[in-house]
Amino acid sequence: MSEYQNAIDQVATLKSQYNGTWNAISPEFAARMVVQNRFKTGLDVAKYTAKIMRQDMAEYDADCTQYTQSLGCWHGFVGQQKMLSVKKHQGTTSKSYLYLSGWMVAALRSEFGPLPDQSMHEKTSVAALIEELYTFLRQADARELGDLFKQLDAAKASGGDVAAIQAQIDNYETHVVPIIADIDAGFGNEEATYLLAKKMIEAGACCIQIENQVSDAKQCGHQDGKVTVPHEDFLAKINAVRYAFLELGVDDGVIVARTDSLGAGLTQKIPVSTSEGDLASQYNAFLQTTPVNSVADLNEGDLVLKQNGELVKPERLPNGLFRFKPDTGVARCVLDCITSLQNGADLLWIETEKPHVRQIGDMVDQIREVIPNAKLVYNNSPSFNWTLNFRQQVFDAWSEEGKDVSAYDRANLMSVEYDETELAAAADEKIQSFQADAAREAGIFHHLITLPTYHTAALSTDNLAKGYFGDEGMLAYVKGVQRQEIRQGLACVKHQAMAGSDLGDVHKEYFSGEQALKASGEDNTMNQFD
After folding, report:
1. pLDDT digits over 504-525, tens only?
2. What 8-state DSSP symbol labels residue 316?
3. Has 64 been annotated as catalytic?
4. Residue 501 pLDDT grade (very low, low, confident, very high; cuts 50, 70, 90)
């Protein structure tokens, strides 16, 4: 029996128990509302999407071409339109997620106004955005199912193919997909991390990404001044997130452990080593130090460590932070990743300074020597100049091959004068295949772009404003926006329906019958788009 028919039967049975006082209630109408609202709570969403993500991880382990993707979305409407587009063009939402970017929450969702990515925004806004995203995705389901129910009624009235439409209802694929949600560095100590993780999971998050920076000195991964914490501190926060998942019954929740060590040259604290070679000792071995031969080598307030049988003084900056040795970022990243996976994390995130498959792959190869199924979430970041990076990669590869590159200025390869060249075409091919190449060669399970919709909103607004306030006037909107919506079949061209007016009309009819005052009559201008 289908979910829809089962819901009809359940409501009919319930109705019969109320001695005629529910006569105005239609079991079929109630069943439709039940089916249109499959996920009653955020925890229902988290449990459902965690299973999807775990299955996708297993499928990637078996076949590295089965990687997953997402785009960062800063508003529920943006996330909804993204998933409507994915389903329309790909025919399925499979392997497509949403990413909740801490950067965009800070820049676009804080009551303080635009903020840098430094964990200064209200942490409650993170969970609120998760809830908002899933509210819009569920509304997308309700809208599409509502259209199917209309088709079902029409088929019944006209003798159409009722079975075919019923099958579409019974096999309907939801727009609700996993969200990888950024909790930054945890917004405080491990208890604060646990409390926020609970709110995020209750809102629907099945996957939480946490980074190993100092919470109160957190920086964007692509800016300078990053400060990492010792492994013990980071693992305590991983534990806090896992306890939050377990407490709420999301037993297969996913934790992404992000390391910023590649670009972080500082630490706030020196952990206490209790045995030779322990984690604290390994972390401290990366500190920049100078030998201490006598008390004369020390200044007032200096610290001294014993390392490998010798006394050394760690280099400390005027702000109290300690410096790591140069060129240790890769080794620190590898140790961070292995340690995180050995202590409860499920996926890794290595924040890099450029998109280079071999750079990522070399680190993953080292990690997989210890943990063979290690896999990554990777930031296909707008902070990279992708055009320049890949043109320079091609330039360097051609140089090594002995190919003549005298026609190109490596430092100026971003110039438009190179756009139609052989080198530019080769670079674009590498950009196009980057995700597949990195999934195959660098263990990347999930590719995301952190803040693409920040940039698309700016670009599309610039193009519209340029024409509308210029010579094109209203044609800028009609030609550049509305006509494109119609030609490309965007449901959003009927913005009243997208905002819920048709759903509201249906509900009014359920509640009021023929007395319902509906908005979708013949005078509704949205009918111009039929």
Report:
1. 788 878 877 777 666 566 656 5
2. B
3. no
4. confident
Task: Classify 264 as helix, strand or coil.
Answer: coil
386 is in an annotated binding site: no
Residue 51 to residue 250: CA distance in whole angstroms: 9
Q: Which residue has the tokens 């009927």?
A: 494
361 marked ligand binding residue: no
Name the CATH code of domain 46-271+325-391+438-451 (choices 3.20.20.60, 3.30.300.160, 3.90.1150.10, 3.40.50.1370): 3.20.20.60
Say if residue 72 carries a ligand binding annotation. no
- Tokens matching residue 319: 């702000």
Task: Quote the pLDDT of residue 116.
Answer: 72
Helix and strand element counts for the chain (H, E):
20, 14
Q: What is the pLDDT of residues 269-289, one digit of tens each?
A: 999 998 888 999 999 999 999
pTM above 0.85, yes or no: yes
Q: How far is CA 121 from the centre of its chain?
A: 18
Rounded CA separation 523/527 (Å): 8
With CA atoms as reference, report the closest residue to 199 among 257, 126, 254, 103: 126
Q: Count the neighbouring beta carbons within 10 Å of the beta carbon of residue 390.
A: 25
Please name the residues in contact with 41: beta carbons below 8 A apart, sequence gap of 6 or more.
202
Exactly one of 73, 206, 220, 337 is catalytic; name it: 220
* CA trace torsion 520, 524, 526, 528 (10° rounding): 120
Identify the CA nearest to 289 among candidates 319, 310, 269. 310
- Taking the CA atoms of residue 46, residue 51, residue 57 and residue 58 in that order, the dihedral angle to the nearest 10 degrees is 170
Q: What are 213-261's pLDDT values in tens digits?
A: 887 665 554 545 688 999 999 999 999 999 999 999 999 999 999 999 9
> Any binding-site annotation on 182?
yes
3-state secondary structure 370-384: CCCCCCEEEECCCCC
Confidence at residue 221, expressed as pLDDT on a 0 to 100 scale: 46
185: tokens are 């560095």
DSSP one-letter code for 301:
T
Of 385, 435, 455, 445, the residue nearest 78 (C-alpha) = 455
Residues near 65 by beta carbon (within 8 Å), at least 6 away in sequence:
436, 439, 440
